[in-house]
Specification:
By secondary structure, this protein is α/β, with parallel strands linked by helices. Helices cover 38% and strands 20% of the residues. The chain has a single domain (5-234), classed as Carbamate kinase (3-Layer(aba) Sandwich). The chain has helices spanning 25-40, 57-62, 67-91, 113-121, 139-149, 183-189, 196-204, 219-224, and strands at residues 5-10, 44-49, 96-100, 109-110, 125-129, 154-159, 164-165, 177-178, 180-182, 209-213, 231-234. The strands form 2 sheets. Strands 4-3-5-2-1-6-10-11-9 form a 9-stranded mixed beta sheet, with helices on both faces. Helix 1 (25-40) links the parallel strand 1 and strand 2.
């Protein structure tokens, strides 16, 4: 196993599966089984999931809603997704802990770094909800911040494409995939990997990122074993 402790970043949209909104139960269980496999292999797993399948603060702002209000609503959407993945994991026998950046005592623990690390050391999957707890910061930034705080070896960004390309592979059949790319190259080529705040945090803390196809069975296990899956962003 190449990576002992990972931060898995999932988009909320990924949970929609083939639906146009909400959570596809089949897709949710697929992800849960993939996460269970790597956890049982001895990898310490932390998860951050977005809320775009339910609500996006930035889109609400375009419709005239106050941005801060919209962002807090988006944080609540991430909690719904976090609770869903927690329920799916526990339903197949995986011990989990859900921590929130916004206090919600009835449903989860508050985010406490030392407690999160202890849960990981005990083999529990830790899910971080509600982003950073602050407006104007994305779940990409929350994932990066939490990964740095818990001293994860890598951020794994699970998407529906199998890596980083020079153009959108869903629109350009001739798009070229990068197996490895440096942080500087991502900047100079103007590629979209994460939002700039999150990406800069990774670069400054020398935290590698792997972008890979989470929807392909077994890919998560292959990545933590060090196989060349997706695209590695490194120094």
């Amino acid at each position: 196993m190449k990576y002992k402790r990972i931060l898995l970043k999932l988009s909320g949209e990924a949970l929609m599966g083939n639906k146009g909104f909400g959570i596809d139960q089949d897709r949710l269980m697929e992800y849960a089984r993939e996460i269970k496999a790597v956890s049982e292999a001895g990898c310490q797993v932390a998860i951050v999931i977005g809320g775009g399948n339910i609500f996006r603060g930035i889109q609400a702002e375009k419709g005239g809603m106050d941005r801060v209000h919209g962002d807090y609503m988006g944080m609540l959407a991430t909690m719904i997704n976090s609770m869903a993945i927690q329920s799916a994991l526990e339903g197949i026998g995986v011990q989990t802990r859900l921590q929130s950046a916004i206090k919600m005592e009835q449903i989860c623990e508050p985010y406490i770094r030392r407690r999160a690390v202890r849960h990981l050391e005990k083999g529990r999957v830790v899910i971080f909800g509600a982003g950073t707890g602050n407006p104007y910061f994305t779940t990409d930034t929350a994932a990066t911040l939490r990964a740095i705080e818990i001293e994860a070896n890598v951020i794994l960004k699970g998407t529906r494409v199998d890596g980083i390309y020079n153009n959108d592979p869903e629109k350009d059949k001739n798009a070229i995939k990068y197996e490895t790319i440096s942080f500087e190259e991502v900047y100079t080529k103007g590629l979209e990997v994460m939002d700039m705040t999150a990406f800069t945090l990774c670069k400054e803390n020398k935290l590698p990122i792997i972008v890979f196809d989470m929807n392909k069975k077994g890919n998560l296990s292959h990545v933590i074993d060090g196989q060349k899956i997706g695209t590695l962003v490194t120094m």
